[in-house]
Each structure stands twice: as C-alpha cells, then as structure tokens.
Design brief:
The chain is α/β, with parallel strands linked by helices. It is 37% helix and 19% strand. The protein has an eight-stranded mixed sheet with strand order 1-2-4-3-5-6-7-8, sandwiched between helices. Helix 3 runs parallel beside helix 10 and helix 8 packs parallel to helix 9. 40% of the residues are buried.
Length: 279
C-alpha cells in the first residue's frame, strides 16, 4: 500500500504513449474510510499545464458508463484535450451524496458535507500530486442521478477550483419535506433549488445538464412532464433568472425516450466530454 502513491507518481511522470487505466486507494480523514479510485488518463503532455481533470462520482460504475472507451475514441479522433479522469467509488451514497449540511426529510445526505470536504481538501490535491501539476487547465466534476446532485452542489460550493459541472439526470427533487405534506412547495422545499434561490453567489461556472423523457412516471404538478425534466429545467431557469452566468454557459440535453440508466447516459457522454474538454 505504501508504494502505491510512488508507483502512480512515477507512472504519470513517464511520457506515456497510450491511454492508461489504473486503480488506487486514498484514505479520507473526512469520511473516515478508504476511498477506492479508478484513474484513467490520456498521454500526459510535455506541458502539464495543458492537462485537464474530470472528477466522476460513482466511479464503481465507470465500465457501465463506458468512460474509457469513449475517452479513447474521442482522444484518437483528436477532438478532446489531454485528460485525467478520477472515478471516485461511492461509499454510503445515500448519506454521502446530496447537498452539504442539508439532509433531506428522511435524514439522507447527512454526510454530504464530509464528501464535499473530501473532494475539495483531499482528492483535488491528490490528483495534482499524481501528475505533478500546480494547476490543471480545466477542472470538471460530473455525476449521474444522486451523484449528479452531489457534483452540482460541490461545484457550486467551490468555483475557485471547479470550472464546469456535468449533471446527468440530477436528483433535483431532493427535498426537506415530503411532497405528500399539504404544506410542501417546490420553491421552498426542493433543497438545491431553495439553496440557489437564497444565494447571492455568482460562481464562474459552466453547466451541462441532461434529462431523458422516459426516466420515470412521477409528475408532481400534473403538467404532463415528468419530474426529472421539470426539476432540471427549473434549476436552469433559476440560474438564468438570477443572471448568474452568460446564456451560452448553460447546455441542456433532453433525450426523447431516454431512461434513468447508463445505456442512456453513455449515449450522451461523448457530447458532454466534447463540451467539457473539446479542442
């Protein structure tokens, strides 16, 4: 174990001719556990300041997401820049994912602030050390479903480190009160929406959102549009209403018939990768 860090450091120091994939493990004092990682990278450029970083929630599912084969294909086609991807394996994702310091009405997401601190204080410095860079050209975080909500919240909390965020079918329904409660309000009780609504921050971020039209049947407001689409569009509309960023800094992809699974998410992953790291 004590030699793994040195091994990876030497691996990245060598000028690689091929895309590589390796596994590693990082102990987190914030999470009080060992966090498994899958690391994928293109050849490291001589000018390491041109290297980009993608942090991916739910790294245990990278094979289903087809991350390496899509990265390989895009890099071979010379449409994306040099890239380091760190996939973070989830622990108790129902507690570690969510919105920092704001558990939902069932107490889920109670450790989201510790996962946020892990990404910010431990994983980010780890990634820089592995490749020997002082600063990445671009840092992006992304995730699917509850991992997408987590990615959005972390990027919002740390725009000094993050440049872009990708949200695939984000769980923006995450709420502090049951929707069956007679006093429930979309504006006040969807946690991420309420957080943005109350915030005066204007983070310099770019946003990429995806939702599929066949992900679920739930339709809280009975408008004929499923919740994942409505909730995503409401977040986008709020960002636009508050004039947080330029209109061109938000991308929304909607797939007709898209489901809540990795088959659908991997279909749009190339679009996201080109948006995030395109030449």
């Amino acid at each position: 174990m004590k030699y793994q860090g040195l091994f990876l450091f030497l691996l990245f120091m060598i000028s690689c001719k091929h895309n590589e994939q390796k596994d590693d493990e990082l102990y987190s004092r914030h999470l009080q556990r060992k966090v498994k990682l899958t690391i994928i990278h293109t050849p490291v450029p001589d000018d390491k300041s041109q290297l980009n970083l993608l942090i991916l929630n739910d790294g245990q599912d990278m094979a289903q997401f087809k991350v390496k084969e899509i990265m390989d294909s895009l890099y071979k086609a010379e449409v994306i820049q040099p890239l380091l991807i760190v996939g973070v394996y989830a622990g108790d994702r129902m507690q570690e994912f969510g919105v920092a310091d704001r558990p939902d009405y069932m107490g889920r997401g109670s450790r989201a602030q510790y996962y946020d601190a892990f990404i910010n204080d431990e994983l980010y410095p780890y990634a820089k050390k592995q490749v020997g860079v002082r600063k990445f050209n671009r840092v992006v975080i992304a995730g699917c479903s509850l991992g997408g909500l987590s990615a959005f919240d972390i990027a919002w909390n740390h725009p000094e480190k993050m440049d872009k965020v990708g949200v695939f079918s984000g769980s923006f329904w995450w709420r502090d009160k049951s929707s069956d409660d007679s006093t429930y309000s979309d504006d006040n009780n969807r946690i991420m929406y309420a957080k943005l609504k109350a915030s005066r921050k204007r983070p310099k971020l770019q946003y990429w959102f995806y939702a599929g039209t066949a992900e679920e049947s739930s339709d809280r407001d009975k408008d004929g549009v499923i919740d994942v689409v409505d909730d995503t569009k409401d977040i986008i509309a709020l960002i636009q209403h508050k004039n947080i960023c330029a209109p061109g800094d938000i991308v929304y992809k909607e797939m007709k018939g898209g489901k809540h699974d990795y088959n659908s998410w991997s279909t749009v992953l190339p679009d996201f990768m080109i948006w995030a790291f395109g030449k």
